[in-house]
Amino acid sequence: MKILIQNAEIINANSPFHQQEKNVLIANGRIAEIGDKNYSADKVIAAKGMKLSVGWFDLGTFIGDPGLEHKEDLESGAKAAAAGGFTEIAIVPNTSPSVQSKNEITYITRNNDSRLVKIHALASVTKNNKGEELTEMIDLHEAGAVGFTDGLKPIWHTDILLKSLQYLQKFNGIVIDHPEDTWLNLFGQMHEGINSTMLGLKGMPRIAEDIAVSKNIKILGYAGGRLHFAHLSSAKSIDLIRAAKKKLNLSCDIASYQPLLDDSLLSTFDTNYKVNPPLREKSDNESLIKALKDGTIDVICSGHVPHEDESKSLEFDLADFGIINLQTFGANLTELSKSMGWDVLLEKVTTNPRQLLGLEIPKIEMNEKANLTLFDPNRVWMFDEKTNFSKAKNSPWYGQEITGKAVAVFNNSKHWFDTAS
């Protein structure tokens, strides 16, 4: 099948066609032509005003499979990812059992050669993600793990972190940490500040993140190796990382919603705004925007954490943390694009995450395999039961019209089109 994408703006700094409007012909899973001609095709997508980039990559998606498939399984997660514009995702190991043996990695990755959305496994640093006993990380690397993390839980044990950084230097592996002092956040429900006080909710102070970031930077300086901080939220944490990156092999990411939402939104006790790290204040959001622009923040991820209704339709202090955000990620980027260019944003969801994990970076050149995302930043659509592919619906945008939507994705000689295209 031949597919022609007409007049899309190519956003890829490594391409000679960067920031140019071109026609792109895809045939048999490869980029056959790039130019100004109207090539003959079986399907034509009129893409004026749309952005064509290397396929998006999500670093740190939560999928409950194996063991927690009622929240999200590999199939539903892949469908939601494709509809959100992703061609590859790396999933955290907070499953049951956790991803701590070759069997779990094989289970996750076994169909990757035929999948539209390729699923990479991030393996556990510690057994059952408890932070107490190291997994066999070298064996897990050889089995296909692309990184090591305790996922949604922090690596709280300092000796464990130290040894992990040392062991992984044997193959230039990366440790990904969710920085949090769990004792300071104990029983916390939202950001500690004026709003938590007014609502009578136990707060989660910035210092719980800041202390963990500061401590782990010092351990990295002592041990060497590569460390990545996931899902940052605090202005102080960003400042610490900005300074440390001058000397250390350090990187970080944020969830795409973090700079866009703040703790005032919790005034109605809507559990769809309950996330960890929590939504902070507007001053923190401004610091995150600045750090995206200056390159301190390397990667933007979805922060996708699905839950069944029974885990969210509860009193606020009993509800689980997390929102789904694979399909609404593009709308977040559209909002962020009001503060920075698309080239800055898309580098953080295409090139940078693959680079960090040592994965092949696709190219937008003739005769290359088509690993592409076509995104319309002006598409207005409704996110509801008709358009949602996730098993969960814990989203602050559920039932609302939002702007910005993936129109098509291409990978592994497969494709997905938005039905409205």
List keywords for this structure.
about 425 residues, alpha/beta, eight-stranded mixed beta sheet, 12 helices, 18 strands
Please give a structural write-up:
It is built from twelve helices and 18 strands. The protein has helices spanning 74-84, 102-109, 137-143, 158-167, 194-199, 206-223, 235-244, 282-294, 309-312, 329-336, 342-347, 351-357; strands at 2-10, 21-27, 30-35, 43-46, 51-54, 56-61, 86-91, 118-124, 147-149, 175-177, 190-191, 203-204, 227-229, 250-255, 299-301, 372-383, 400-411, 414-417. The strands form three sheets. Strands 1, 2, 3, 4, 5, 16, 17 and 18 form an eight-stranded mixed sheet that branches. It has an eight-stranded parallel sheet with strand order 6-7-8-9-10-13-14-15, with helices on both faces. It has 421 residues and is α/β, with parallel strands linked by helices. Helix 3 links the parallel strand 8 (118-124) and strand 9.
SSE layout and pairing:
Elements: E1 2-10, E2 21-27, E3 30-35, E4 43-46, E5 51-54, E6 56-61, H1 74-84, E7 86-91, H2 102-109, E8 118-124, H3 137-143, E9 147-149, H4 158-167, E10 175-177, E11 190-191, H5 194-199, E12 203-204, H6 206-223, E13 227-229, H7 235-244, E14 250-255, H8 282-294, E15 299-301, H9 309-312, H10 329-336, H11 342-347, H12 351-357, E16 372-383, E17 400-411, E18 414-417
Parallel strand pairs: 1-4, 1-5, 6-7, 7-8, 8-9, 9-10, 10-13, 11-12, 13-14, 14-15
Antiparallel strand pairs: 1-2, 2-3, 5-16, 16-17, 17-18
Helix pairs in contact: 4-6, 6-7, 7-8
